[in-house]
Amino acid sequence: MKNLKHILGTLLLTALVFTSCTKNDNDNDSLIIPATAQEFDAIREQALEDLTQTFQFNAEDGSINLTSEKGVEIYINGGCLTKNGVAVTGAVELEFIEIFDKGNMLTTNKPTMGILPNGDKALLITGGEFFVQATQNGVALETNCGFQMQIPTDLTGGADNDMILWNGIIDEDGNLAWAEEKRDAQGQGGVFAEGNQYYGFFQSFGWSNVDRFYSDPRPKTTILVAVPTGYDNTNSSVYLSYDGEDSGLAGLDTYDAQTGLFSEHYGQIPIGLECHVIFATEDGGDWKYAIKAVTIVENGIITFTEGETSIATEAQLTTIINALP
Fold this sequence. Notes:
By secondary structure, this protein is mostly beta strands.
């Protein structure tokens, strides 16, 4: 079955690559105008906006149940909401984002990189990434009793009892990493699987994740990635899609301005791993990208050139990434 999926995924990927626009193959690199940081940020913000769902309710309604587009059940108590420490009354808006596939992880820049106890980062396999925020008249609210979600496990390949909860931390460059959520003093919080659902108990609003670390016993290494001239970590990104893992996407979050290389400098990538390395940036409001199938070697260097890039819409790129084996 896995071999069949690999073959079908490869055929679909090949078809999509050839149907997207490949205008750069014969261009003179000196004529290429790279995206600005603002343009790259804007296309990722648009991807987030495209995934944002909104719900309205009254705080006086008490406990309410909301259902997302993918079938996630959100349970929230309006009586627990506060604004600047004061109990909320009246109309409330809830923003909700759900991400289950690596195509949407890439376009929104929300890879699944978990923070290890020593501060390094490694790939997480997800049961779903979520953003939840209640607001009133544009002001973010807080909850003093948390909220719950019921998440269908078939969205990420079935139940996994090793899943735990993680909180999203966004750094000054806008990159997201995940820190394990600790239970509070009363032992509240956490997630468990039962039947075909995950039951998550969240203590605060913001980015959250149902995840576990990817596990591979093989020796690990670092890798370096060179991108086309004119691109760096402000106007482009590099990601790793591990073959056989549909619900996780690694990101290379380090860039050396002197060498012009992106790096996975934590030494967490298995030697011999079959994966796809992805370069992504913006071009005229669309996505410019390149993908290479790679088998990881110790201290390997992967190079992308301008001639290898193609252009795709957000929807096209999402489909292409999700079709990777």
